[in-house]
Specification:
319 residues, mainly alpha, 11 helices, 84% helix, elongated
Length: 319
């Protein structure tokens, strides 16, 4: 009985030792697997971080290239303005006379423009030369703007954007010419009518230039209204019904904006607000013709064509 008991005890001890060995091996395997999983996770995280850094560097390169291109475009525009300024300064007296001719025609014999401080005439001629220099350099500026924007546009966007640039310059010139040939004579005639035998008008060069430049700029910008509203109607942001419904609010807005943009006199404000009202009606007509119709809204966008164009642009940028 004792021998059998000893044998059974030895078997039990051997089983316990075997179980302990198995348990230790299982624990080792689990620990090894955990370590492997952690290593794999760390490797995946490192790969993700490396990819993110790579993508960020790729994104930074186009931004830097765009900034370099923008810098070159701005330098060429500045050189063009400088050349235009140098050419204009050679004819500064003639250019200033062209600008003051609407006033000089209405002034009495013997009346002339004056300057009240010693450097006023010099700085006025510099400002006139700078303004005409920008006007001379405007084709170069428009071309540089188009050359910078065009690579990021699709073919359809290019076909719509190019006429907008041409028409915007045309409308701006029309507004400035309207202010020069129509508003200036009427406004100056009204202002000079306050002269009496004891009161004489003595306009200075500086005041006249600031007054004329503000009016010409205001009329040029406000004449862009039909183009802006027609473009918004074509994009589907504004409809013809919306423009007709809010006509009365638009008229109120025109008088407020004309009071802000023009010098503080009623004549110039009214002379700007009335053309704006007419241009608003013209923009409604343009929205009817070129506005986005319901059929165009229901049609889906040509995403495949856009994707192909994006791939072509990416290949061009890589080259």
């Amino acid at each position: 009985m004792t021998e059998q008991g000893d044998k059974q005890g030895k078997k039990a001890e051997s089983k316990e030792e075997e179980w302990k060995k198995k348990y230790k091996e299982e624990i080792k395997e689990e620990v090894i697997e955990e370590i492997k999983q952690r290593r794999q996770e760390n490797q995946k995280k490192k790969k993700k971080e490396y990819r993110k850094k790579k993508e960020a560097s790729k994104d930074k390169q186009p931004v830097m290239s765009h900034l370099e291109e923008l810098r070159k475009r701005l330098i060429t525009c500045a050189i063009a303005i400088g050349v235009g300024f140098a050419l204009s300064y050679g004819f500064k007296e003639k250019l200033f006379k062209i600008l003051t001719s609407p006033l000089e025609k209405l002034m009495q014999s013997g009346d002339k423009l004056i300057y009240t401080s010693l450097p006023e005439a010099f700085f006025t001629y510099i400002k006139v030369s700078f303004l005409f220099g920008i006007l001379i350099a405007s084709p170069v500026i428009i071309y540089q703007l188009w050359a910078f924007i065009a690579p990021g546009l699709y073919k359809k966007e290019k076909s719509t954007f190019l006429p907008i640039i041409f028409l915007s310059s045309l409308f701006f010139a029309a507004g400035s010419l309207f202010g020069y040939f129509v508003v200036f004579p009427l406004g100056f005639k009204f202002f000079l009518s306050f002269a009496t035998e004891t009161i004489r008008p003595l306009p200075s060069m500086k005041e006249y230039l600031s007054f004329a430049a503000k009016l010409l700029l205001a009329f040029g910008v406000c004449f862009e209204l039909p183009l802006v509203l027609t473009a918004l109607a074509k994009l589907g942001i504004v409809s013809v019904a919306f423009l007709k419904k809010n006509r009365k609010y638009a008229l109120l807005l025109f008088f407020v904006t004309s009071a802000i943009l023009t010098p503080p006199d009623i004549i110039s404000q009214v002379m700007l607000a009335i053309p704006l009202a007419l241009l608003y009606e013209l923009s409604i007509f343009g929205a009817k013709i070129f506005g986005k119709k319901k059929e165009d809204k229901e049609q889906p966008n040509n995403s495949d064509e856009n994707k192909k164009e994006e791939k072509e642009k990416e290949t061009e940028t890589k080259k």
